[in-house]
Amino acid sequence: MVTWMVDYFYNRVLNVITKYTVNRHYESLNEETGGMNDVLYRLYSITGDSKHLFLAHLFDKPCFLGLLSVKVMITVFYMTE
After folding, report:
1. What is this structure's pTM?
2. Cβ(17)–Cβ(25) under 8 Å?
3. Taking the alpha carbons of 61, 32, 21, 47 in that order, is the dihedral positive or negative?
4. Which of 8, 47, 59, 76 could disulfide-pair with 36, CB 3.0 to 4.6 Å?
């Protein structure tokens, strides 16, 4: 049942990206997504299905990831000095 639901959302998200843009998908994440990425990462750890991992990445909010990557870059910079 769960994997069927993921297949449904996978196809739906890819349809939005194909029909519009990936930015349109990311704009939709401004609404409550209810921890979809966490659920999908956990499902991937159980199934090993790369489709679940790909979809989990699509539910990561770029605005948060951007800040995290800056933090990592700053940390690495100070570690090398």
Report:
1. 0.62
2. yes
3. positive
4. 59
